[in-house]
Amino acid sequence: xxxxxxxxxxxxxxxxxxxxxxxxxxxxxxxxxxxxxxxxxxxxxxxxxxxxxxxxxxxxxxxxxxxxxxxxxxxxxxxxxxxxxxxxxxxxxxxxxxxxxxxxxxxxxxxxxxxxxxxxxxxxxxxxxxxxxxxxxxxxxxxxxxxxxxxxxxxxxxxxxxxxxxxxxxxxxxxxxxxxxxxxxxxxxxxxxxxxxxxxxxxxxxxxxxxxxxxxxxxxxxxxxxxxxxxxxxxxxxxxxxxxxxxxxxxxxxxxxxxxxxxxxxxxxxxxxxxxxxxxxxxxxxxxxxxxxxxxxxxxxxxxxxxxxxxxxxxxxxxxxxxxxxxxxxxxxxxxxxxxxxxxxxxxxxxxxxxxxxxxxxxxxxxxxxxxxxxxxxxxxxxxxxxxxxxxxxxxxxxxxxxxxxxxxxxxxxxxxxxxxxxxxxxxxxxxxxxxxxxxxxxxxxxxxxxxxxxxxxxxxxxxxxxxxxx
Length: 471
Known about the structure:
By secondary structure, the protein is an alpha/beta fold. The protein has three domains: 2-233, Metallo-beta-lactamase, Chain A (4-Layer Sandwich), CATH 3.60.15.10; 244-351, 3-Layer(aba) Sandwich (Oxidized Rhodanese, domain 1); 360-460, Rhodanese-like domain (Oxidized Rhodanese, domain 1). It contains 17 helices and 24 strands. The strands form five sheets. The protein has a six-stranded mixed beta sheet, covered by helices on one side. A six-stranded mixed beta sheet has the order 7-8-9-10-11-12. Strands 13-17-16-14-15 form a five-stranded parallel beta sheet. Helix 3 (153-168) packs across helix 5 and helix 7 (246-253) crosses helix 11. 47% of the residues are buried.
């Protein structure tokens, strides 16, 4: 028996490879499917099933392409309806993989079709569950993504409570819990950095499983949920109704373009120029109006949160050799319209005599001197609300990057804004977007709040109303 968790940190997503006696199954595969095919080939195994725990909202699954290339059957739980060929399991139905048995346990609440898969060994002993977004390590799935008809978020949370207590809580304490996500995913609010655990330990430490009543569970699970990123519903629809073959996405996007061709393509198509380099490298020289979202961070989730049109044509600036990685990570969240990349990168652009722009980036010490000399400066803290409320500079205004499309119109284009996040990744995203929208005077604080904390600027470590921004 082989069980392998294939964890993708930038998405905080876990897929699973299971093999026994030459038969294999994949649970919740990512968009690019070659790694799964190669893994099965290495074991001389045939992929028999592709189990989907639900219609994922935070990424586009590879189930359709993988089924086409492997001949495996796609399996969803009860109530799922797809526009492609799939098998809809009934609650309690069993599937054989070599000497192993997978039992579909219908566990609605996160979504109506959410299903947990219980794996038992050849002796019939319960070994682990693949819980999808029903049960995380330290958390449970958010109940606000798939409300239908008159159902409220509280109704879905109540359903989730019933699922956990009727299907999962009664399993042996030594059963391993393998969820679909870990810390950093927007599918829950307080997930652990650990990616698996025993069910018994989760009963002791998971706040949701410790709830003493259904009413307490509903209150705690629904409290403090932030709105989902805009791309979630779009990804769920792609997973349900189908999508473009990933091979075609690569063929379309892996086109090297000379500076002249790149510029012409941008003008002709209205493409967004997406610069994926390190934030501090980007700041020194970039194509005017380009947006920086670095590959070295949570690239795909931030693309999904900030670029509102999945069909938006994209032209890429990447470090040499990173072209395929960038396209892959875009496709994982449904951005399939990359139409080329700048061959030779920014160096080639400059050598061709094309215009460049830059963003000033100052150290925390430099910022401290400026702030003490001028108490009226405008400072934007683009961290998440919870981060801001936990601790922030008293002179800052809370403007979360997640909602930049909502608050940009409050910004006075003639003013100068100092921007920081926690470490410098998100602040450069925000600075580049503001710059592209005509706010010329933006200054990034390198190192973010982590560096600012080492200065003597006055901070507060409790929640308080953010200052209003005057346009």
